[in-house]
């Protein structure tokens, strides 16, 4: 073909391609428009109020970052609901968003229309540390992870309190008995990494035993990798471009450290397969139970990290937030003391903990006022509908387009005065004498992805609280101001939990 006719041919080919793609986009655009119009009509959808932000929502994002810096992000997001109503929309960095604190909407996303949503960007943010496991995946993979992990939270394992007592004893050695100030929050974070690693790996990392020269470094490396992951979550869609200083090294260290335990578990599985039962240690270990279902070392490591991340900071944060409040309230401390006195100095069992009503009210109230996972979101994987938030009165259903992110605030919902009364902002455990909330109270999430470690966490937190009350007759807060948010992957107290304790 001559040069002239060849370029003519390419020109025609390009034009045909351009027309075909334009027709394709026009066709799908038109059919999507009509399909969506029908869904809206059938469901009586009305648009929710739209947040009045500027181009790309940059002003909204900047304000949120500023408030995060000032440790006021949760109250600011709550004030937006006061201004806009229970549900509103925005488009931030081209991402369509719906914000809600309506229990009916949250129930729809997490349970009734569970299959219409996935976790969105979580895998990009947490993937480098956690890989693919129960906390980072959706669909089939999540389903198989959940089936693998769930049996390990059966009552017998959860109720083994011997390990909690051993770790508590180590923590006790670090609490001054001369009335000087101690930051309990630091100790709770050390204790929960010790107990969680023993539960999961079969061996504790003994962060509470460590001093600067003996530390094995796992707790520090894990904290660092986790903090970098929390920053990546905040980067949203741009998470893949974020890489924290020292993150690769920290993740490598964590992986290599845990791989030793994984190797041991696979060896255990090999012995089991060969039916060399005599060579097999019968002690219950979470990882060893997982190894009965797979020999895939990467899969085992990923699941371990997923559960470690889900379970460690959460319980420590609950304890820190709760002690921050009760240290300032001698009346609550006295009531807890009276309840604990009924144990006559016995170390609590699973059953006794279950019967300690006032302790349970305090934990409920702490998780209400300072929910450890205060904000969360799900991405719509198909066009779908929320039951409330549309129209002038906010009572009509709302259309949610495929690709929109529904961001829900458990924190705002837990502080709603129309649900919890005019004293919703107060720490008042007694309110639980009469409260029986359903989806209005959601510290552990709901629906098919409800927290698997709820009983484990409440047992550990209840145990530690009871033991502190048994060892110390008095507590005094050394935090002069009110509680201030510290929002990383979980919500804890910015200044820590500084107290002085008086031994019996
Ligand atoms: C006070 C303590 C705790 C709180 C408030 C809490 C809260 C939550 C919440 C809100 C979720 C849902 C996250 C989401 O889907 O976006 C969750 C999931 C999960 N939690 Fe907890 N958690 C706590 C302790 C624990 C502990 C101690 C463990 C394990 C030892 C644990 C294991 C898990 C697991 C495995 C999931 C993932 C469930 C799934 O996606 O199917 N949690 N937790």
From TrEMBL:
Cofactor: heme
Superkingdom of origin: Eukaryota
Coiled-coil regions listed: none
Keyword Membrane appears in the UniProt entry: yes
UniProt xrefs under InterPro entries: Cyt_P450, Cyt_P450_CS, Cyt_P450_E_CYP52_ascomycetes, Cyt_P450_E_CYP52_fungi, Cyt_P450_E_grp-II, Cyt_P450_sf
Keywords assigned: Heme, Iron, Membrane, Metal-binding, Monooxygenase, Oxidoreductase, Transmembrane, Transmembrane helix
Keyword field contains Phosphoprotein: no
Protein name in the entry: Cytochrome P450
Organism: Lineolata rhizophorae
Source taxonomy: Eukaryota, Fungi, Dikarya, Ascomycota, Pezizomycotina
